[in-house]
Amino acid sequence: MLSKSQISLLTSLQHKKFRREHGLFLVEGYKSISEFIDSHYHIHTLYHTPDVAPKLLKLSQKINLQEISLADLQKVSGLKTPADAIATVKIPQFKALTHTDLENKFSLVLDGIQDPGNMGTIIRTADWFGITNIICSDDCVEVYNPKVVQATMGSLARINVLYAGLSDFISNANLPVYGALLNGDNIYNTNFGMEALLVMGNEGNGIRPEIQQLITKAVTIPRIGQAESLNVAIATAIICSEAAGKSYK
Amino acid sequence: MLSKSQISLLTSLQHKKFRREHGLFLVEGYKSISEFIDSHYHIHTLYHTPDVAPKLLKLSQKINLQEISLADLQKVSGLKTPADAIATVKIPQFKALTHTDLENKFSLVLDGIQDPGNMGTIIRTADWFGITNIICSDDCVEVYNPKVVQATMGSLARINVLYAGLSDFISNANLPVYGALLNGDNIYNTNFGMEALLVMGNEGNGIRPEIQQLITKAVTIPRIGQAESLNVAIATAIICSEAAGKSYK
Predict the structure, then answer these.
(1) Please, are residues A36 and A87 in contact by the beta-carbon 8 Å criterion?
(2) What does pTM read for this prediction?
(3) What tens digit of pLDDT does each residue of B200-233 get?
(4) Are the beta carbons of A230 and B124 separated by less than 8 Å?
(5) CB contact under 8 A, A155 and B241
(6) Who has the most CB within 10 Å: A3, A73, B44, B228?
(7) What is the least distance, in Å, from the CA of B3 to any CA of chain A?
(8) Residue B101 burial (CB < 10 Å; 0-12/13-18/19+)?
(9) Cβ-count burial of B40 within 10 angstroms (0-12 exposed, 13-18 middle, 19+ buried)?
C-alpha cells in the first residue's frame, strides 16, 4: 500500500518544479520501465501491481520494489487507463557531446519544440533510425515531462538528450547543418552524406532566424497537395528517413 | 449570446451518438473553419468572436453567422485554449469510390486506426502528399471526432474519406496493394509505380490477417536503431513520402 507521502511524491512528479526538486521523473508501464532498467538510467523505486511480479525475478539492476494494488496505481498514474506499474527514475546529468560523439552519424537539433507528444514521437523515431543524439534548445519541452516519456515508448532510455544554446553548439560542431525550411532544396534530390546535424524548428514559427543563419543546406519536403504544413514530428521522420534511413542501406 | 439549447447542442456534438443524431460535427478555429467554407462541406452555423467579424465580409458560402463572446466560446469549446470561432458543419454522405477515382494515384487504406491524433495527422499528411482518398475500416475512429478534426488542421475539408468493408473494397479495386508489414521488402528499394492502395494497420496489432492476404507487395521501413516500432502516423508518412512524394518529382 502506498503511504500518503509516497502518493504526494508520485503525484508531484507530474510537475517540472517537483521533478527538478527531487531529481526524479516518472515512467509508466512495465514494458517502458524495463527499457530504463536495461539502460544507464538508475531506477529509484518500481511500484508494480501483482501481475508484474513474475517478470521481476531476473532484473539487471538492484531496484527498490514495492507491490501496490491497481487502486493505488490509479491514484498516482497520469494515464486515463493506468498500466501495470509506475517507476521513479533519477534524472541524469546531461553530458556534453564532443565532436567524436557526433562524427560519422546524424544528430537531431530541435529548436523550440513545444508539444510533448511531438517531442516523444521524435525521440521514438530517432531511435528507430539509429540517431542517438538529440540536442534541444533550452525552450524545448522537457523530455522528462510524463507525456513526452509516454510517447517515446521506452526509446528515451536509449537516446542522449542535451539541452544547450543552439548557436554555440552548432558553431562548434563543425559538421554539415541541414535545416528544414520552406524554400530549401528538394529532399529527394539531396545527398545527406554520412554525418550531419538535422535542424527542425518550432511547430508554429519554424527555425529561429539566428539558427537559420547557421544552416549550410536548407532542405524542403515538396508539397504535392494543399495542406499548409506538416506536423513537425512527421517532417522530422521524413527527413530522418531520407538522411539516416538510406545511409545504412 | 448563446441560448441554453445552443450550448446543449454544441456540447453534445463532442459525442458520436449526438453527431449521428444531428448529422453535424464541430470545427474549431476560424483558420480551419475557412477551409471547410471553401470546400464541398456545408456549414450549418458559424459562431465567432468579434475578432473574426472583419474576415467574414467575403464568404464563398451563405452562412448562418452568430457573434458570441469569448466566455460563451469557452462554454462550448472542447479545447483547453479556445480559438476564435466554432462551427457546426453537416456530415456529408460518403460517396462510393469508383475505379476512375482511384486510378493513376495513391490512396490510403486504414485498417483499425484507433487514436484520433494519429487519424488526424494521417489525413493532414495525405493532404500534403496529394493523396485525396482514404478508405477506413468500419472500426477506425470516426473522422468527425473533434480530436481528429483538430489534428487535420483543416485538411479534412479536402480529403474523401470512405468507411467500408476493406476485404471487398480492396478486392474490387483492381490495383497494386502495398501493405506495411514487419517482414516486407525494404521501402527504399521499392518502385511504387504511379497508382496503388497503401494499407496501414492498427497501432498495436497491425493489419488484420484477412487483409494481409490481399496485399500484393509487403513493404517495411528498415529499422537501424532499437525502437520496437514506429508510431503509425509516422510510418504512414514515410511510406507516403516514398510512394507519392517521389512519384511527382
Answers:
(1) yes
(2) 0.95
(3) 999 999 999 999 999 999 999 999 999 999 999 9
(4) yes
(5) no
(6) A73
(7) 33
(8) middle
(9) exposed
**Cell of residue B96, nine digits:** 462510393
Nearest to A127 among B128, B226, B238 (CB): B226
Per the document, the length of chain B is 249
Q: Which residues of A touch B80 (CB under 8 A)?
A: none
Neighbours of A55 (CB within 10 A): 15
Q: Which helix (H) or strand (E) holds B18?
A: helix B16-22
The pLDDT tens digits along chain A (249 residues) read: 899 999 999 999 999 999 999 999 999 999 999 999 999 999 999 999 999 998 888 777 789 999 999 999 999 999 989 999 999 999 998 888 888 999 999 999 999 999 999 999 999 999 999 999 999 999 999 999 999 999 999 999 999 999 999 999 999 999 999 999 989 999 999 999 999 999 999 999 999 999 999 999 999 999 999 999 999 999 999 999 999 988 655
> Nearest CA to CA, how far is B4 from chain A (Å)?
30
* Domains, chain B, with CATH or none: 4-90 (3.30.1330.30), 99-247 (3.40.1280.10)
Chain B contacts to A (CB-CB under 8 A)? 117, 121, 124-132, 153-155, 158, 186, 188-189, 221-231, 233-234, 237-238, 241-242, 244-246, 248-249
